[in-house]
């Protein structure tokens, strides 16, 4: 199983970024996918999750209305569209899935929101 995130960077408050996670090594279309983030000195937290078919999504209260999770089961990709970014969104963002009883994580992509 391999998860590779991309799309992070430096953005001003109020700006937007779109993160992508390309998955391989498992049946992506059958796996629930999550985005987590970890800010310096803080616990890793769940940001958003999406069911295998994309019909069910969940979000942390802190990002509701600003972030949108989506997936493409043909391209084996899960994305996180982040709008209205705030300095408190600064963190390393990870995609995650559970498959065959194991927990898999990508290497993370840094998002920095600063003027």
Throw out a few tags for this protein.
11 strands, 7-stranded mixed sheet
Radius of gyration: 13 Å
What order do the helices and strands follow?
Answer: EEEEEEEEEEE
* Helix share, percent: under 10%
Biggest sheet record: 7 strands, mixed
Mean pLDDT: 97
Low-confidence stretches: none
Number of helices: 0
Shape: globular
Q: How many strands?
A: 11
Structural class call reads: mainly beta
Strand content: over 45%
Termini separation: 37 Å
Short description:
This protein is an all-beta fold and 115 residues long.
3D architecture notes:
The chain is an all-beta fold and 115 residues long. Helices cover 0% and strands 53% of the residues. It is built from no helices and eleven strands. It has strands spanning 2-6, 9-11, 17-24, 33-38, 45-50, 57-59, 67-72, 77-82, 91-99, 102-105, 109-113. The strands form two sheets. Strands 2, 4, 5, 6, 9, 10 and 11 form a seven-stranded mixed β-sheet that branches. Strands 1-3-8-7 form a four-stranded antiparallel β-sheet, with no helix packed on it. Strand 4 and strand 5 (45-50) form a beta hairpin. The protein is globular.
Record the SSE blueprint.
Layout: E1 2-6, E2 9-11, E3 17-24, E4 33-38, E5 45-50, E6 57-59, E7 67-72, E8 77-82, E9 91-99, E10 102-105, E11 109-113
